[in-house]
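Re: your question from the hallway

Yes, I did run it. Sequences:
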Amino acid sequence: MNNIEEKELKSSEEISDDKKVLDDLTSSEYKWGFVTDIESETAAKGLSEDVVRMISKKKNEPEWMTEWRLKAFRYWLKMEEPTWANVHYPKIDYQNISYYSAPKQKPKLNSLDEVDPELLKTFEKLGIPLEEQKFLSGVAVDAVFDSVSVATTFKASLNEKGIIFCSVSEAVKEHPELVKKYLGSVVPYTDNFFAALNAAVFSDGSFVFIPKGVRCPMELSTYFRINTQETGQFERTLIIAEEGAYVSYLEGCTAPIRDTNQLHAAVVELVVLDDAEIKYSTVQNWYPGDKEGKGGIYNFVTKRGACRGKNSKISWTQVETGSAITWKYPSCILQGDNSIGEFYSVAVTNNYQQADTGTKMIHLGKNTKSTVVSKGISAGHSNNSYRGLIKIGKNAEGARNYTQCDSMLMSDRCGAHTFPYIEVENDSAKVEHEATTSKIGEDQIFYLNQRGISTEDAVNMIVNGFCKEVFKELPMEFAVEAQKLLAISLEGSVG
Amino acid sequence: MTGKEFYIENFNTFQKKLNGQSKSFLNEIRKEAMNRLTELDFPTNRNEEWKYTNVSPILKQNFIPAVNTTIPKFTKEEIKKFLFNDFDCHLLVFVNGFFSEELSKISLLPKGVIVGSLKKILKENPELISGYVSKISKIDNAFNALNTAYALDGLVVIVPDGIALEKPIQVLYLNTSENELVLSLPRNLIVAGKNSQVSVIANYNGYGEKVYFSNIITEVFADENSIVDLCKVQNENENSYHIEKVQAQQKKNSLFNHYNVTFGGAIVRNDINSLLDGENTETHYYGLYMANGKQHVDNHTFIDHAKPNCMSNELYKGILDDNSRGVFNGKIIVRQDAQKTNAYQQNKTILLSKSATIDTKPQLEIFADDVKCSHGATVGHLDETSEFYIRSRGVPQELAKSMLIRAFANDVIETIKIEPLKEQINHMIFDHLHRIEIENK
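Structure:
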């Protein structure tokens, strides 16, 4: 009799142990929180035509670029901040933000030796040793430290193939015809409030041009990092794949702990011509705010790709674990016949994070196909929404879409929401949509427990299994990082 | 003066004509609703809930509340073709929203059961309904306000505790415009007491081809352990407008089945909402809509899981032909306390023609963690391989298509419990879509 009682007692202790493990994990602090002490040049707070002119001037931009920025700024003034997203945050005072910040640097760098050693250390802490990557992994890294590109590697070997991989500011000077032709052609500054703001004040970003018939020999990657306190970062990325070209682009970001919210309004534009393909992968783990939901990045991003050519393809893969608020809908406009759009996403929210993310697939061409796989995991007090649009245009004969969005709930205080919009105007289209929401399986945890696997590992395994469909789309290095990230931001939030 | 102003302007004249009715509890509610109408604007496409449905054609014309028009007289012979036959039922007939005693036929009812008209009950026993009318359904938009402000009559069914009504209640709502454009405003109430059961068939029909506007509110209260079936078959004339809001409130262990079959109407909008206000309640929504010509059919459903251990299941199917347009929005909210919720939803649509369109938006908002929720939506056309297979057996193409349409609709038709009704709906499907009929077997 006593024995049994003892046993029971023990098992309840074990349970509370498990709980503790889980609590510890859920409450794990943001690991990438550190501030680099580096001298940086920051513009005074506020936004006006003068500030826009100043940014343009600082970057030595030609007249047409300044004009474009000003047009965008004037348009932005007339716009209102959107409120339809399922996120809540205090009103942003756009005059209380500094719109330009650049590390004080010598203007040109030819090799890594010239890079500020402080800066290099930061990258090392982030696990991006430039040198190592340069020699070992074969990834060319265009590292963006705050707003200005400081080092671009592998440029020479890319140059040989005619591939242009540089910062947008550089491209404006050296390849104005390409920039003029494509910048704003997918996301015009009139598109939305944040896109207009970005067009007016964008700091810098990556420019990639893959010429006709070239397959980019390596994965291109940019690491973004927000550093200077209260500096909004306004990245602008433009990737063009000409006929038959292929490129895989990686984007990943971390940011140090801050108290005040940092605004990030980036724009990414992809242009894909006949038979070309762009694969765009993102791991986003910016500072999500502390356990009380204080601080954290506001991430309002417009990402869009246009499959202009026949048989073209765009594939978006994202792992979103960071940011206090995420507002992001990587989209594909499938103009060319037989073009393909893909979207694979894992979005994790914990504590007081809010995510409203998803995709838009606009089918215009014949026999266009799209696949959407979205996995949402919510824990703590967070809210995680999937918002997606599948639109089949009148002329999109034989269009095909498959959408699956699954949500997993880890606590009784979080929310998981789905808002899928399906608009079909062609009778030959086939559209399928499936969504499920459920709690992490207690039976599954129990099963793994009884095999001697700790609750922590069990949850990890289940979550990784849940996200597998998306992870397998990520490039190798990213997949590893993504799994680690998931473990840090979530693991065991089961109560 | 059109739309909103017209209805506001006419309210005073309407009030003066009320005579005895102006003293009823409902009149305060009417005045409140009129105040709300002055604040509210009729929805536009900018309103998320009305994103895909443009109601401006309805607002361009001034419909006159039926009370201010002459209600046409029909004979029993004339209404016969609108009725569902071959099964025993209580029959109530409303013409332009007003109860017609001569045309109705209510057989003997168990003690305490009330099946009749709102107007009559307001006069005789208003206390029986004062706890429900406009308490279950709040005003969500200007159409609701318009109904609440002007409605005078409608169906009232009250089944006391422990009684199961054996015969279903068939309610024919016959609408027609003669000289003026008529606004028909039925206000329905179904109250099922504890351990009771009731089944209502709401049969909406149009007489003649002239435009009219039906703007309806139906309130359903299902008390503990009750079972309520509400089957709506809507076959208004093809030029008219039909807007209905159904709001159900369900208590512990109750079961509510709502069937919604749509054939007619130029612009049709259904809001079907349930509040699951007790543990272990169950809700089923079945919908089937056929549209052709330039019809616009919009179904919005909203299931609010407020309490734990509830189950909801939704199946909506649409068949769209010609230039018709379908809209489906299925919202499910699972509140923080509603643990152990199971909520399922499916929406399937087939497009039979090049220019038919569908906008569908299943929507889950979940705040509890121990739940199982899923939704699925598909849009497609008739499967060519299936068609080919059937034709290879010597079946003509048109017949093969009809077979596939019937097969598609089957999941919904089969849920209807009254056999003769099933058969007549089957017939109406092919009649409405102008296709070769497959017999219901």
